[in-house]
Amino acid sequence: MTIAVGDTIADGLSGNLDPDSPTFEMVRTLAEQVVVVQEQEAIEAMRAAVLNERLIIEGATGVAVGAVLARRVDLRGRRAAVVISGANIDSARLKAIL
Q: What's the CA gap between 22 and 41, in Å, rounded?
């Protein structure tokens, strides 16, 4: 199935999977939960990473951090980690976020 791809800060998550990609099956088998993060929440997470941690993160990582900061997942009593990957963001877009 092909889906229409819209404009998003998380361009690494926006495309369609290659037909031979194992990603969908891995997520379907291993993921405990999938949550929706709003565009603004991802942007705010990216801004917070720069201002508070001095880390430049790409939009896809902003989604993961945004899910935690927006409390989209219940982490009470649990240990959790967010994988911080990539600084793949256009400098003009980063400037606009900041």
A: 28
